[in-house]
Amino acid sequence: MNDHEIVLRIQELMDGVEWTPDTLNEIAQVLSDNGYRIRDLDGEKLPTSDETPENKDKFSLFYECPRCHEYFSDSGPHVTNDDCPYCGQRDVAPYEVQDNAEQE
Ligand SMILES: [Zn+2]
What we know:
Blueprint: H1 3-14, H2 21-33, E1 59-64, E2 71-76, E3 94-99
Antiparallel strand pairs: 1-2, 1-3
Bound molecules: zinc ion.
């Protein structure tokens, strides 16, 4: 089917039909049968590891403030020092780094 036929097919599906979740599934089926990418939110998760731009939460970082001894944590694409949210101590180095990308 070309794009135009797909649109017609979907119009047919929608024509005079009371929409139900099945209607959406049928439309999704028509689209995915024709090479459109459909995300199934209820289904299995699509692999996302390569899709997250710049691996936003690649590392979980755990800090203990050397000044006030509060613990805090952060996550990010790089291992970085962070500022203590409790007392403002700057450049606290993480005492523990968890590489989330290595967990499967
Ligand atoms: Zn502190």
